[in-house]
Design a protein that fits this description.
It is built from no helices and eight strands. The protein is mostly beta strands.
Length: 82
């Protein structure tokens, strides 16, 4: 086993992360809004493609950490659900 291997982090469905470097195109929810599983949360553009980010579960938007037009690196927390 390599010594420089990073420890894995547990999957947290309440944190919506950028899965690759991208530009936030449109945020379709607001803080405090209730969402259903599969509902669109935001759209971001990576590699000339629009990616729709959907709610992984029913919940309420706890925080919106991104702004429209903002470039974000991989693993940036975009939204948090409660």
């Amino acid at each position: 086993m390599p010594l420089d291997r990073k420890p894995s982090e547990p999957f947290t469905p309440k944190l919506i992360l950028a899965f690759m470097p991208a530009t936030v195109g449109k945020i379709t929810v607001k803080k405090g809004q209730k969402v259903k599983e599969g509902e669109e949360l935001l759209i971001f553009t990576a590699m000339k493609m629009d990616n729709r980010i959907l709610a992984p579960m029913d919940g309420k938007v706890k925080s919106v950490n991104a702004r429209t037009g903002e470039s974000v690196p991989k693993n940036t927390i975009l939204l948090e659900l409660e």
